[in-house]
């Protein structure tokens, strides 16, 4: 799992799997946000399954899917509000990390 820091205690990554969530929990991550819609690609784990694992490990899990081809101003505003109250450290992910980075940057510019 390759992780980049977007802001203090906010990180981004590509697709997470069960072992990645377990590692993130050991490293002190408190919240995981999934920006990838279910069914986007074959073999992709379901968000509900990842959320169950995260919650079993004592982490918060937020499913906030984003279509990278059609991010609107309203999407960005809703995303910014969703991120405001999340416990940090926060790990955000999607397929490659690009859309999560993009919407985070747009939300930070509000």
Explain this structure:
- This protein has one domain: Protein-Tyrosine Phosphatase, Chain A, CATH 3.90.190.
- The chain contains four helices and five strands.
- The chain starts with a strand and ends with a helix.
- A hairpin with a 2-residue loop joins strand 1 and strand 2.
- With 110 residues, it is α/β, with parallel strands linked by helices.
- 38% of the residues lie in helices and 19% in strands.
- The model has no long low-confidence stretch (mean pLDDT 96).
Q: Could you tell me the number of beta strands?
A: 5
- What percent of the residues sit in helical stretches (DSSP H or I)? 25-40%
Number of separate domains = 1
- How many H/I helical runs? 4
In percent, how much strand structure appears in the residues?
15-25%
Major sheet strand order:
1-2-5-3-4
Instruction: Give the structural class.
Output: alpha/beta
* Poorly predicted segments: none
Q: The CATH topology is what?
A: Protein-Tyrosine Phosphatase, Chain A
- Ends distance: 30 Å
Using brief descriptors, characterize the structure shown:
5-stranded mixed beta sheet, 110 residues, Protein-Tyrosine Phosphatase, Chain A, 19% strand, 4 helices
Task: Describe what is shown at a glance.
The protein is an alpha/beta fold and 110 residues long.
What does the secondary structure layout of this molecule look like, with pairings?
Blueprint: E1 3-7, E2 10-13, H1 18-26, E3 31-34, H2 47-56, E4 60-63, H3 73-84, E5 90-93, H4 98-108
Parallel strand pairs: 2-5, 3-4, 3-5
Antiparallel strand pairs: 1-2
Helix pairs in contact: 3-4
């Amino acid at each position: 799992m390759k992780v980049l820091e977007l802001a203090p205690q906010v990180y981004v990554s590509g697709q997470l799997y069960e072992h990645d969530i377990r590692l993130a929990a050991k490293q002190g991550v408190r919240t995981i946000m999934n920006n990838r819609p279910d069914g986007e690609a074959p073999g992709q784990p379901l968000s509900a399954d990842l959320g169950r694992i995260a919650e079993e490990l004592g982490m918060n899990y937020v499913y906030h899917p984003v279509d990278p081809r059609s991010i609107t101003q309203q999407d960005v505003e809703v995303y910014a509000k969703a991120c405001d109250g999340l416990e940090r450290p926060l790990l955000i992910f999607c397929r490659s990390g690009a859309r999560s980075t993009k919407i985070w940057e747009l939300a930070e510019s509000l």
